[in-house]
Design goal:
Layout: E1 5-6, E2 9-18, E3 33-39, E4 46-53, E5 59-61, H1 65-72, E6 79-86, E7 91-96, H2 103-112, E8 119-123, E9 129-132, E10 138-140, E11 144-151, E12 157-160, H3 172-178, E13 191-194, E14 197-202, E15 206-219, E16 226-232, E17 235-237, E18 240-242, E19 247-250, E20 257-271
């Protein structure tokens, strides 16, 4: 019988990371944790992360499949962000205010740091979801906890790094080559699916839903492998205890199962078909 598997996690310190990671990650030593990685099985080419920001992330973008395969022998990186916690005034930068800007002007702005003024700023609140196609110029601001779901790739082109010391490498040639000279619509409206489920994002690479549990919820046998990310609460999943901040993978063809909790919220994500 196929049973849910709790995914191993890896905590990564970052220059922009935060010591304030509870209740998703116990951090008694108060390390500046930026990312918690949950990598699924080989049958599901997705990567789930929890992000904790005490400072702004670099202004960056990611390649699409074609460019990533040609230059890195890897997948591209389309991603989505679901905000779990936001301090007052927190937000994200996404897309260009003026898509008609020239590549030369954008290159100059990246070098000077004025690129930040060229990007759309969107306030971020708990519960917001942002979809970020490969090539979108973006940055995540300070004071946020985010669940990020992405293609299984970590190719990042850094365009500006806020003048941080020590200086980290920029990747202007690649980053400007793959950049989308487009604006961005901001956060995505949820679509109610019934049965305590809401569609958050769907693209050729993944489909992500929000599932609220109050009591017992019956989950069907999945057609393909699926990840359940516990972003709020605790309880049991298929009889095994779970806690907030864990991710569980359910294999294709597993028996229907139940999630039991007085109050919990999951994000579920699977490969698009």
């Amino acid at each position: 019988m196929i049973k849910p598997v709790r995914l191993a996690s890896e905590a990564l310190e970052k220059v922009w990371g935060s010591p304030h990671t509870e209740p998703w990650f116990q951090n008694s030593s108060k390390q500046n944790i930026g990312e918690i990685w949950f990598q699924a099985s080989d049958r599901l080419p997705l990567l789930v992360k929890l992000l904790f920001t005490e400072d702004n992330l670099s202004v960056q973008d990611h390649p699409d499949d074609t460019y990533a395969r040609a230059h890195h022998q890897l997948r591209g990186k389309t991603e989505m962000w679901h905000v779990l916690r936001a301090e007052p005034g927190a937000g994200v930068w996404l897309g260009l205010k003026d898509p008609m800007i020239s590549r030369v002007e954008l290159n100059t702005a990246c070098i000077s740091g004025e690129v930040v003024d060229l990007l759309n700023w969107y306030p971020a609140n708990a519960g917001d979801t942002f979809f970020v196609p490969a090539g979108t110029i973006h940055a995540i601001g300070t004071g946020l906890v985010i669940c990020e779901i992405q293609q299984l790739s970590d190719v990042t082109y850094r365009l500006y790094d806020w003048g941080r010391q020590p200086v980290r490498e920029l990747h202007l040639e690649d980053g400007l080559h793959v950049a989308r000279f487009e604006s961005h619509p901001g956060s995505i409206a949820r679509r109610d699916l019934g049965n305590s489920r809401q569609l958050l994002a769907e693209c050729p690479y993944f489909r992500t839903e929000r599932l609220e549990v109050r009591g017992t919820v019956s989950c069907p046998s999945p057609a393909g492998n699926i990840i359940y990310i516990a972003v709020e609460g605790g309880g049991s999943i298929a009889g095994a205890p779970f806690r907030q901040g864990e991710a569980w993978e359910i294999g294709a063809g597993a028996e229907p199962f139940e999630i039991c909790s007085p109050a919990a919220v999951f994000l579920t994500t699977t490969e698009s078909v």
